[in-house]
Design goal:
about 270 residues, alpha/beta, Rossmann fold, 9 helices
Length: about 270
């Protein structure tokens, strides 16, 4: 029987941050970071699979889910990484494998850039490597005159986050509706700015961190073939999931969890041999 999630709110310098924890507290730590316009609940299907062997830590990024909007309105990716580093310090976590979905992969990368002592390995799921790989059509769902959008508008906005024909879960609609327009817009702009300054493979290559990349072959936000760009990172492993869109953590939780766990076990085995 799965134990209930331990919920807490950390009082950080620039706003309160929600944290959920599952699994043994003395097990290796896995930090899960959601993407823009989502929340830590997007990992619900994976947590029971990962928390058997890991201390699973989920956060709601500022302005998302149960976390406050940041004081001063700074949604910049480097600042997000700084906040997560502070959160892990507060939790007493000294080493963690960091897993990011979609734009959560940029925050994961920023955290690794800032705190190489803390991040032992990275798993990026459907994280676009460069702006030239972005293929999603423009959306008007966040236009000022249309906030709050209708459920139908929200489903259209979120539809490219899943493979063609996949019904957008109601909880994703509800999470998005609970956000302010400013938070949605600022978070998306911050991700674009971070990626526009430097593509992810060139950020990751000098870090020397084990890297697992997971993409759906039917991703409708980022060109699936662009996953191969990560092979420029020495030792990176790239896996494509067939019949899967932009959100494997919901569409294919079993296969996604297996790849995450394989990455952590491989990394642990390599560390033990060294």
């Amino acid at each position: 029987m799965t134990s209930p999630t331990e919920d807490s709110v950390l009082r950080l310098e620039h706003g309160d941050l929600y944290v959920g924890q599952d699994g043994p507290r003395d097990a290796p730590a896995l930090l899960l970071i959601h993407g823009s316009a989502a929340s830590s609940r997007s990992w619900d299907a994976l947590v029971p699979l990962l928390s058997v062997s890991h201390r699973v830590i989920r956060v709601d990024l500022p302005g998302h889910g149960r976390s406050a909007e940041p004081v001063g309105g700074d949604y910049g990716v480097p600042e997000q990484g700084h906040r997560l580093g502070a959160a892990l310090d507060r939790l007493g976590v000294e080493r963690a494998t960091v897993v990011g979905h979609s734009s959560g992969g940029y925050t994961a990368t920023a955290l690794a850039e800032q705190r190489p002592d803390l991040v032992t390995a990275l798993v990026l799921i459907s994280t676009g490597p460069g702006m030239d790989a972005f293929i999603a059509p423009p959306s008007t769902a966040t236009a000022p005159t249309q906030w709050p959008p209708t459920d139908e508008q929200l489903r259209m906005f979120a539809s490219t986050g899943f493979r063609e024909g996949y019904e957008v879960p109601q909880e994703f609609v509800d999470e998005l509706r609970g956000m302010s327009q400013a938070a949605v817009t600022a978070a998306m702009q911050a991700s674009t700015a971070y990626l526009s300054r430097q593509a992810l493979p060139s950020r990751l290559a000098p870090l020397g961190k084990p890297l697992q990349v997971i993409f759906g072959e039917q991703d409708r936000r980022w060109r699936p073939a662009s996953a191969a760009d990560y092979r420029a990172v020495p030792g990176a492993r790239v896996d494509l999931l067939p019949d899967t869109g932009h959100t494997p953590i919901v569409e294919e939780p079993l296969r996604t969890a297996a790849l995450i766990l394989a990455a952590t076990w491989t990394h642990a085995a390599g560390r033990n041999r060294s």
